[in-house]
């Protein structure tokens, strides 16, 4: 019997011309330029009183180490229960993989590694688009938007996003090669980066459904193994919280506490709220008093 079709689509004959290395390097360089200049782009700086009420560890902020990055650095330095000046166990809202990597490599080491990871992300995305037979023009635009969109700065800083994207793209790549065990491990890593990292389990779920409808039980078993990894990653952290704090779902319940006030919103709600905030400040005060803050 003929072999059933695999997940990947045959590469076009002109694949070598799909994306040149030079174009990949240009897009990566533009992204790095955005990252390098971002700390010096003028923007309204909150007063010290605002920072004290909204950002812990602001006194340690500099260059690309801001906001969530500071939480990761504090957890890496002191652990989940040793961070001072914050509500007890509020740190458990952050999953453990990024603090662990920072603990091993130091913040600057991780920042440098993150730049390399973004370069790999572009390369992986390039090959996935090539595998899916995107046109050259569409592929160029996709990579440009990925590298230069307003949220792209998070892909090269000490946030969870660059690692979630990296593990997700790499998991999809090895799954297309039917290396299911590797895809399962990478899915577990993605689930340990942040709460949203567990949503990468939708990829093996889709592969699972497609394989079942085609009757490809070998691929069905592989997709199931891939999906197990995403679940096991989150279960690892749940088990850690249960053993150490006797509350397996603490990372979820702590986010709905008054301190974090996390809640679901409609798509684009934050963009609309941000736009109203900008308009309000443009009308009320052309310039925001810097006060005694040297926060950058």
How does the SSE layout of this entry go?
Blueprint: H1 21-37, H2 48-54, H3 68-78, H4 97-105, H5 107-131, H6 136-148, H7 161-176, H8 180-191, H9 202-214, H10 217-245, H11 250-253, H12 269-284
Helix pairs in contact: 1-5, 1-6, 3-4, 4-5, 5-6, 5-7, 7-8, 8-10, 9-10
Explain this structure.
The protein is an all-alpha fold. It has one domain (15-284). It has twelve helices and no strands. The protein has helices at residues 21-37, 48-54, 68-78, 97-105, 107-131, 136-148, 161-176, 180-191, 202-214, 217-245, 250-253, 269-284.
Q: State the order of secondary-structure elements, H for helix, E for strand.
A: HHHHHHHHHHHH
Number of strands: 0
**Can you tell me the residue ranges where pLDDT is under 50 for at least 5 consecutive residues?**
1-16, 286-296
Question: Compute the gyration radius: what is it?
Answer: 22 Å
Main sheet characteristics: none
Q: How many distinct helices?
A: 12
The structural class is mainly alpha
Count of discrete structural domains: 1
Shape: globular
Mean pLDDT: 78
Kindly, what is the distance between the CA atoms of the first and last residues, rounded to a whole number of angstroms?
65 Å
DSSP strand content: under 5%
What share of the residues lie within helices? 55-70%
């Amino acid at each position: 019997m003929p072999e059933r079709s695999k997940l990947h689509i045959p590469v076009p004959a002109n694949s070598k011309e799909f994306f040149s290395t030079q174009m990949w390097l240009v897009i990566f360089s533009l992204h790095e330029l955005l990252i390098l200049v971002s700390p010096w782009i003028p923007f309204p700086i909150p007063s010290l009183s605002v920072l004290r009420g909204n950002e812990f560890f602001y006194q340690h902020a500099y260059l690309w180490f801001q906001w969530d990055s500071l939480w990761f650095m504090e957890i890496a330095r002191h652990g989940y229960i040793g961070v001072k000046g914050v509500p007890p166990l509020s740190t458990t809202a952050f999953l453990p993989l990024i603090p662990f990597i920072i603990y091993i490599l130091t913040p600057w080491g991780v920042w440098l590694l993150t730049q390399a990871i973004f370069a790999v992300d572009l390369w992986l995305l390039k090959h996935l688009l090539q595998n899916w037979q995107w046109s050259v023009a569409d592929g160029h635009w996709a990579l440009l938007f990925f590298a230069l969109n307003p949220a792209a700065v998070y892909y090269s800083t000490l946030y969870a996003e660059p690692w979630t994207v990296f593990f997700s793209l790499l998991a999809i790549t090895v799954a297309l090669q039917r290396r299911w065990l590797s895809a399962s491990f990478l899915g577990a890593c993605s689930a340990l980066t942040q709460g949203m990292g567990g949503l990468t389990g939708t990829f093996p779920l889709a592969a699972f459904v497609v394989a079942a409808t085609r009757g490809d039980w070998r691929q069905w078993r592989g997709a199931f193994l891939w999906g197990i990894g995403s679940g096991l990653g989150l279960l690892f952290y749940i088990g850690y919280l249960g053993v150490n704090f006797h509350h397996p779902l603490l990372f979820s319940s702590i986010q709905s506490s008054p301190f974090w006030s996390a809640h679901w919103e409609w798509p684009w709600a934050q963009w609309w709220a941000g736009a109203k905030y900008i308009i309000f400040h443009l009308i009320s005060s052309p310039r925001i008093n810097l006060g005694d803050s040297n926060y950058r």
